[in-house]
Design brief:
Length: about 325
């Protein structure tokens, strides 16, 4: 019998499991067919009919990483009976196949759930950008998991120690590491995150070295690595299916298409956590509807003039707020 704790099962889930059903975790999803891991090992499963009767339950259908209960069938396809409470999740905006400027309804698409750490991968070459890092930070905080910043290819940047301090100052996080997977630099500091039963996801541009890092930590080539272009340090996405992979240390890696290009779908909480300094200044404005342009006693303009708040940070905050408001809106007008 497989101990489900090896697949991340935690005590809080026990109250959600119905009697007579087996606990399981979704490790792969392809259309309506799921591969799940349960006490009996790896099995194939489908959804019970109840999932199709409620149209509003689309985002409550299982995705990779979900903990579920099943009606186990030892001689055929098992049935997924219920999806248990999620402790973390990533969502992205779904345009339902329409071009961005012509979509009338924006939906939320849940693409990965129940992970413990979000590895924000940034390469110390053309990819290094503090604004992009801050954006990823907001998304990671919104997910409910712990952000971990990994600056890859540190052997290509002599100032990598300075980059680490920049990211720490920008994000307020101490979980910042500079590594070179190919040279074996800095990897020991990451090993505590790769414990048995812990689940990780990776976000970042293509070509930053995610697959290389996973392969090195796993001690095996479990993920395909593609070459990157020298002109812009970009690579092609190597992930083509949604899956959860277990590596030698016992850690679990969620690998799913689209997770690198996450949009801000109602990331209000994550933005507030990432920009507590900015929102604290906004609260000091005399008028609650202050636009921070010409209104008297505007704390934001005072902070900008005194350099207590940088213009770059203020612009980034406004940019992400606008993107977030657009992303969570259920209907938008066509672009003129």
């Amino acid at each position: 019998m497989l101990d489900m704790k090896a697949y991340g099962w935690y005590d809080a889930l026990n109250t959600g499991a119905s009697k007579g059903l087996l606990p399981a975790r979704v490790i792969e999803s392809q259309r309506e067919i799921y591969t799940i891991m349960c006490e009996q090992g790896e099995v194939t499963a489908r959804l019970k009919g109840a999932f199709y009767k409620n149209k509003d339950s689309e985002n409550h259908r299982p995705v990779v990483g979900d903990f579920v209960t099943i009606q186990y069938n030892p001689s055929g396809v098992s049935l997924i009976a219920e999806v248990l409470k999620r402790k973390s999740q990533f969502s992205r905006t779904d345009f339902s196949g329409h071009a961005e400027g012509y979509v009338k309804t924006i939906k939320e698409q849940v693409i990965a759930v129940n992970f413990d750490y979000v590895f924000i991968m940034v390469s110390l070459n053309h990819d290094y950008n503090l604004n992009r890092i801050k954006r990823y930070h907001s998304v990671a905080l919104q997910s409910g998991a712990v952000p971990v910043f990994v600056l890859t290819k540190s052997d290509c940047d002599e100032a990598y120690a300075q980059r680490v301090e920049e990211v720490k100052e920008t994000t307020g996080s101490e979980n910042v590491y500079a590594i070179s997977a190919t040279m074996g630099m800095g990897l020991e500091a990451l090993r505590p995150y790769f414990e048995e039963g812990k689940t990780l996801v990776f976000i970042g541009s293509s070509g930053v070295g995610k697959s290389t890092l996973v392969n090195v930590m796993a001690g095996d080539a479990i993920m395909k690595v593609n070459a990157i272009r020298a002109s812009d340090s970009k690579g092609r996405h190597t992930t083509t299916r949604r899956q959860l992979v277990k590596i030698g240390s016992g850690a679990l890696i969620i690998d799913t298409p689209g997770i690198r290009e996450l949009g801000l779908f109602d990331a209000s909480e994550g933005l507030s956590m990432a920009f507590t300094d900015v929102e604290s200044i906004i609260e000091q404005c005399k008028y609650s509807d202050c636009r921070h342009v010409q209104e008297p006693h505007c704390a934001v303009r005072e902070a900008l003039n005194s350099k207590r708040l940088s213009m770059a940070r203020w612009k980034l905050y406004n940019q992400l707020v606008l993107e977030n408001e657009w992303g969570k809106s259920k209907s938008i007008k066509k672009k003129r």
